[in-house]
Design goal:
Rossmann fold, five-stranded parallel β-sheet, two-stranded antiparallel sheet, 9 strands, binds adenosine-5'-diphosphate
Length: about 270
């Protein structure tokens, strides 16, 4: 993003943008907490746009190494050349660097962000024998889904306490309705039905579902409906189906779909 594109659509839920901007101004790193599909990525996109900074996103996974983030020497036409990794590039460019689902990486990888995340704001490039200083415009943002937390996968306290935590939950119903309407193009009444269905599913948390219905799956259902798929069919495919493979749970979700989503079409057997 260069800042010339239109602002990514993001509807604020509370004071998250003010807290983010204050953190940015004071060079603090941000830990974005929230379930999958609640708007974390979209929020960072909107913030980077508002602050006029490029956004460099890294999707974290367990095989991601420190060298993947920082950079490495590569052989090019018989010569060894240094290639910056995305984190180094972000520091040099004064970008917003977004490490998505940082908890997925091994802890020895997470440690490379420590001197950057705290008051030092430095990135040691050990292979090059230099340390680069982050300019004031550089901002480190990591996302984290507390629902996935386990003994094996949790952020170290030493990482967490270097950051300002901003918690993003699912938006309140009126905001979520506007998001679904805007993002999918369905009528507001239809969006409201989908949101009420999601709220009913969210009340089932802890009853066998690993995750509940996110704003993202509501948008997907809306997009199918806007494409002419019958609303209940769309809700089954985009909301219920991704949540579980368990037949009994799926039957329960199908009953909720029938109760909350109106359409005349029969449900598939
Ligand atoms: P996460 O990064 O938390 O997994 P995303 O940012 O990818 O979630 O959000 C999923 C989708 O939900 C977005 O693409 C967007 O369509 C929608 N969305 C969720 N919350 C909002 C919001 N507050 N404003 C605008 N769109 C939102």
């Amino acid at each position: 993003m260069t800042g010339k594109e239109p602002r990514p659509y993001y509807l604020a839920v509370a004071d998250e943008a003010e807290v983010f901007r204050a953190a940015f101004r004071r060079g603090l790193s941000v830990l974005l907490k929230g379930p999958t599909g609640c708007g974390k990525t979209r929020f960072v996109e909107a913030m980077a746009h508002d602050l006029g900074r490029p956004l460099i996103t890294v999707a974290c996974h367990e095989d991601l190494t420190a060298a993947d983030l920082v950079g490495r020497f590569l052989l090019k036409g018989g010569e060894t050349v240094w290639m910056d990794g995305p984190l180094t590039r972000a520091v040099r460019e004064g970008a917003v660097c977004y490490l998505d689902e940082v908890v997925e990486t091994r802890q020895d990888t997470t440690v490379v962000i420590h001197p950057l995340a705290d008051h030092r704001r430095q990135l040691p490039l050990e292979r090059l024998g230099v340390t680069i200083e982050a300019p004031p415009e550089f901002c480190l943002v990591v996302s984290y889904n507390p629902g996935y937390q386990s003994v094996l996968k949790d952020l170290k306290d030493s990482t967490r306490q270097r950051m300002v935590a901003i918690e993003l939950g699912f938006p309140p119903a009126d905001v979520e309705e506007r998001v679904v309407t805007h993002e999918s193009g369905v009528a507001p009444e239809r969006a409201a039905e989908l949101v009420r269905l999601a709220e009913a599913i969210r009340r089932l948390e802890g009853h066998g579902l690993r995750e509940v219905a996110s704003t993202r799956v509501l948008v997907a259902a809306g997009l199918l409906i806007a494409e002419g798929v019958a609303p209940r069919r769309a809700a089954l495919a985009a909301i219920a189906g991704p949540l579980t493979d368990d037949h009994a749970l799926m039957a329960g979700l199908a009953r909720l779909v029938e109760a909350y989503v109106s359409d005349g079409s029969p449900l598939p057997r």
